[in-house]
């Protein structure tokens, strides 16, 4: 059922556009033309961000942070096994996806830890990636407040989510 | 970012200097490499979704969509109709879990909002909405979980939905509070 959603969505929009007498081909091409320019403006921010996340991982700073964080996390009801996931997700979606598969393989997809990991993964977003990419074309970037608010909200949601996993 | 970037960069570099100085340049290159290869696939992804979005705009569907979402977004954003349309397209894509379609409309929304009064408040709101995840259906998690042989992959749906709703409400509430005092910045 899920798989049918995208083809149906596209077909519906194409048919609707045809009814509205839109030149579908010209319109689609006009939109797609912006893709290269968009990627070019986004690339430098993405490079800086990925470079930082790579450094964070390779330098071992991540491990150190985790060692400090895990007692705090356990006290708040978050299994310390998913601390790394919480730390990686704001920087890298693909990194977090890899960690999620790893957790499934190690603890089993139906374990409590895996369910917490699913909820934390699903209720969080790649905060720094969004900050870097969405605002690539904005001159006056002042996102400090937004980043702090988003990270705090994500963290609270993780605590709340793990609580829900225990009672639901 | 002008503070976060150098701070993290220097701390990490100092760590590497002591444990693995050889790994420094490969780490930098690895990061840039990831950006380069992701960019290449993003050209393809954006071509599809920007074409699709243009079709939505030209056929009048995005205005229709806007009329549905505007009662909510009109309260959260203090801006004109044009940028609200981009915001609505961005939010709709997020709700449907089409993250790749959300990005181009999000960038357009950010650009339009930044050229208007109340830019800081509106941009922070847009950012928090996008960075606290609005997804109704966590597709990646569901497919990964059933691949890993879960007996009931869907049992995380409700807690995920509640927790993502919670994070968005906390975020939006915080933005509203934060900008309550100076509503004209």
Write the layout of secondary structure elements.
The complex is a heterodimer of chains A (about 170) and B (about 180).
Chain A: H1 2-19, H2 24-32, H3 34-58, H4 61-75, H5 83-88, H6 93-107, H7 112-122, H8 127-134, H9 144-167
Chain B: H1 4-19, H2 24-58, H3 61-76, H4 81-95, H5 99-114, H6 119-131, H7 139-147, H8 157-178
Helix pairs in contact in B: 2-5, 3-4, 4-5, 5-6, 6-8
Write up what this structure looks like:
The complex is a heterodimer of chains A (168) and B (185). Chain A is mainly alpha-helical and 168 residues long. Chain A has one domain. Chain A is 78% helix and 0% strand. Chain A contains nine helices and no strands. Chain A has helices at residues 2-19, 24-32, 34-58, 61-75, 83-88, 93-107, 112-122, 127-134, 144-167. Chain A is globular and about 60 Å long. With 185 residues, chain B is mostly helical. Chain B is globular. The model of chain B has no long low-confidence stretch (mean pLDDT 87). Chains A and B meet through helix 1, helix 2, helix 3, helix 6 and helix 7 of A and helix 1, helix 2, helix 5, helix 6 and helix 7 of B.
Q: Count every beta strand of chain B, where a strand is a DSSP E run of 2 or more residues.
A: 0
Low-confidence stretches of chain A: none
Total count of domains of chain B: 1
Distance between the termini of chain B: 20 Å
Summary tags:
heterodimer; A: 168 residues; mainly alpha; 9 helices; B: 185 residues; 8 helices; globular
Quick overview:
The complex is a heterodimer of chains A (168) and B (185). Chain A is an all-alpha fold.
């Amino acid at each position: 059922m899920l798989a049918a959603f995208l083809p149906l969505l596209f077909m519906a929009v194409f048919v609707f556009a045809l009814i509205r007498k839109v030149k579908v081909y010209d319109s689609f091409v006009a939109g797609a033309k912006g893709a290269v320019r968009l990627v070019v403006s986004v690339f430098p921010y993405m490079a800086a961000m990925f470079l930082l996340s790579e450094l964070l991982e390779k330098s071992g700073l991540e491990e150190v942070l985790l060692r400090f964080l895990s007692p705090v996390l356990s006290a708040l009801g978050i299994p310390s096994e998913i601390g790394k996931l919480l730390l990686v997700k704001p920087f890298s979606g693909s990194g977090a996806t890899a960690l999620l598969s790893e957790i499934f393989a190690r603890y089993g997809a139906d374990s409590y830890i895996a369910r917490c990991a699913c909820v934390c993964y699903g209720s969080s977003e790649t905060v720094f990636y969004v900050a870097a990419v969405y605002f690539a074309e904005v001159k006056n970037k002042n996102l400090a407040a937004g980043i702090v608010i988003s990270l705090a909200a994500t963290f609270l949601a993780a605590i709340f989510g793990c609580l829900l996993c225990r009672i639901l | 970012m002008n503070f976060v970037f150098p701070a993290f960069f220097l701390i990490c570099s100092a760590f590497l200097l002591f444990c693995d100085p050889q790994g420094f340049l490969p780490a930098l290159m690895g990061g840039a490499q990831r950006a380069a290869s992701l960019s290449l696939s993003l050209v393809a992804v954006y071509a599809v979704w920007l074409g699709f979005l243009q079709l939505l705009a030209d056929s009048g569907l995005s205005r229709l969509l806007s009329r549905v979402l505007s009662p909510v977004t009109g309260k959260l954003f203090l801006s004109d109709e044009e940028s609200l349309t981009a915001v609505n397209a961005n939010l709709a894509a997020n709700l449907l879990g089409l993250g790749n379609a959300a990005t181009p409309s999000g960038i357009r929304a950010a650009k339009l909002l930044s050229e208007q009064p109340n830019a800081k408040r509106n941009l922070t709101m847009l950012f928090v909405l996008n960075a606290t995840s609005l997804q109704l259906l966590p597709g990646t998690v569901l497919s990964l979980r059933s691949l890993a042989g879960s007996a009931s992959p869907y049992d995380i749906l409700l807690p995920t939905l509640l927790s993502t709703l919670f994070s968005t409400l906390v975020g939006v509430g915080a933005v509203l509070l934060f900008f309550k005092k100076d509503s004209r910045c």
